[in-house]
Amino acid sequence: MEDNSLPNGMSILHSKSENGGQFLLFQDETEIGNLDYRWAGTKKIIIDYVQVTPRLRGHNLAKLLVSHAVIFAKSQNIRIVPLCSYARIVMLRNPGMKEVMYPIGE
To answer: Residue 76 above 80 pLDDT?
Structure first.
């Protein structure tokens, strides 16, 4: 997988709930992006969307959010269904991420 280090002053917080969660991207104290997911059973999550504030797009920050979701999935031994088209493209282009995608047809 690729480098998961964050630019200076940025952090990612994983907020969990019973039905899903979010990876929240902050620059200093300001939220600048998020990835939302929901549980689909006990062994997979669905990424509904990933977004980054418009002024910071094009800096691979959304990709970092997807990467953190993949790390979470691997640590929990679960799969990801990327409904978000951006998340799907990122995962398909990165072999280390693609391996946690839920196979279509299962």
So the answer is: yes
For residue 73, give the nearest of 18, 2, 3, 21 by alpha carbon: 21
CA quadruple 95, 72, 84, 2: dihedral sign: negative
**Residue 104 placed within a domain:** no
The reported pTM is 0.91
Q: State the total domains in the chain.
A: 1
Q: Identify the CATH number of the domain in which residue 67 sits.
A: 3.40.630.30
Contact between 52 and 32 under an 8 Å Cβ cutoff? The reply is yes
pLDDT digits (tens, 9 = 90+) for 13-39: 999 999 999 999 999 999 999 999 999
Domain span holding position 43: 10-97
Helix, strand or coil, per DSSP, at residue 27: strand
